[in-house]
Amino acid sequence: MTLNEAITVIKDRLQQMDELYNKTVFDEWAIIRVEGSRGRILTYEGQRREDFTHSFPAEVKAFGPELLKSSQIPADMRPGRTSTPTSSSADRCSSSATTPRSP
User: Fold this and answer.
1) What's the pTM?
2) Which domain holds residue 90?
3) What is the chain's pLDDT, residue by residue, as a tens digit (103 residues)?
4) Strand, coil or helix: what is 68?
5) Are 92 and 64 a contacting pair, CB within 8 Å?
6) Cα 56 from chain centre
């Protein structure tokens, strides 16, 4: 999957979740690349681009080792088309480096 394809899939899934929950579920998201204790922002959508860019190096150092040893494989985290959304649907997505919106 290319970066542009991933961005399209993410935007589609976020729109589906917003429709299922009847509200915005995530107001920001990013695709990052982590190598050792360093990271790079590949794309970011949200209102705090400057804050995110500024704090990202310190945050990735904290999360880098955990991400590298994780046994999770990135996957399509969309809720089933006939399923009722649950908080765990959003939790799984937030564990993939997405920030949930405060209630």
Assistant:
1) 0.59
2) 3-99
3) 899 999 999 999 999 999 999 999 999 999 988 776 678 899 999 999 999 899 888 877 776 666 656 555 554 444 444 444 444 444 444 444 444 444 4
4) helix
5) no
6) 14
